[in-house]
Amino acid sequence: MLEGLAGRFNLSALKKPILYILALDLAIYLVGVTWGLPNVEDWLTDSLAPYHPLIGLSKAFSFGYFNKYPVVHQLILAVLNLPVVIGAFIAHISPDGFRLYEFLSYARSAEFATWLILIDRLVSVTMGLLTVYFLYLGARELFSERAALIGALLASFNISLNYYAHVAKVEVPYVFWAVVSLYFLIRIVKYDGLRDYVWCVVAASLSHGSKDQGYAIFVLPFVLFMVVYQVVARSDKALSIRDVLLRKKLWIGAGALVVSSLLAQSVLFNPDGFVARFEHLTKEGGVRNIQYSYAIDGIYALWRDSIKFMMLDAMTVPLFVLSVAGMGLVAYRYRKDGRELFLKLFYLFPALSYSIFFVQVIRQSSVRYSLPTSLFITVFAGFAADYLLEKTAGLGKKAVSVMLVLVGAFALYEGLSVNATMLGDVRYDAEAWMNTHMTKGAVIEYYSYLQYLPRFPGGSRSYRVKNDVGDIEKRRPDYLVLTSKYYQRFLRKPELDTGRMTTIRMERDSKSGMPEFLDDLFADRLNYRLEKRFDLDVPFFRVPAAQKISPDHILVYRRLGAEKK
After folding, report:
1. Are 412 and 157 in contact (CB under 8 A)?
2. pTM beyond cutoff 0.85
């Protein structure tokens, strides 16, 4: 019987090293996945959870439905969220009929929202695992099994991947689909199978259909490897360039790309929503955070800062150096075979394409924009490790082994800083204090989005003020709660070195009245005094500040004379 099961399920596959790497990834991505829960809000800016997918589904993602992100991942989450909605619906059916009011109240509760958030986060966990797996598959097609395994292991420790695999944002989904597409593109070059063409372009469409910027990953790779490489490196020299360009497979792939792109971008079933999103991206959404000028010094400064943030807050410096060394070793190893060298440098081209056609367009150096590039070039770190281990012996091999262990250990240490920061988020301390010290019915005023704030005590009344913040004596709340993740934007003076510029958002914030209000509050010119300050303290680990996981601090101000518990 056991032999039959082994034959059917291929139990020998459990011995594959990649499964142990994925098991490690799973453990890493699950630690901290309940960050900020239970809650009616996700502790993350621009999260799709908890309600956006269901709102889109309620409108069939049509009839002018607008969201700043495309529809693909929203649709996936909506389908997976449906069982929670159906379960809640059934639970509110009684012999007397459907309890509509109770159902609507429950749908706005932390319990209901938490299930949605958790499901959506687990989807990111799954896609994070599959991202590592398809990177491994792609690297194995290019290099050796050992190089692919080492590259996958090092990619597992990526700080940005770890963070975004924990949350319900579209970063991991679009990168996952991109990695899948690139794997099939490698197979196109090597095997020229029709199915590979179709899977490649469909996965590419799912990538930019999850987040628009995914398109930039494919501009150079598609042109270089579907067209240029096929022309330059064609094995049958009797074929003309025209014959290569008119291949049936290429045009089937092109047709599949057009159709799948139109579907993924909802052009066919939600044209009004597509136009609205396009206008948002090319106007307000695309220009308000431009940080760098279009001059030569601005282009250079953006490249410089993007690489710096990628080194420090996505990969670690040693891993970046090893990856760059890997590119050099690839160039040296295959220097006499231009065709093979071009293919072996495959993952360099999507990294360059993304940087040229997205980062240099959006003109921002946020570390989250380095996620795909940092993963792509980590493949070369795996090659470097494999090459050095193969070419050394004796003490040299031992030295290389020690070096690789140290590079990996440091990358793991930095990656785990995400988990440590989530578990030690300063908002937990603020919540514990507020639950102990604030009286029932206390009125709390805040100024940021809820995702930046601690959860307020049950029985309190809270509200957000966005305009006329200086009229606080008309409102007279008992407490003011401020988070460094938001209020500091009104006080921060931009560091405008060569190539950088003041963003539209900075200019808007400076004229909002908030800077003057904060100056008066901090100088004790208002009838409020600092009651408690909570500072982030994560022992042993460096806080990955660029990932913006936890506020640096939370400030609680109490009105003079307000009742204490």
Report:
1. yes
2. yes
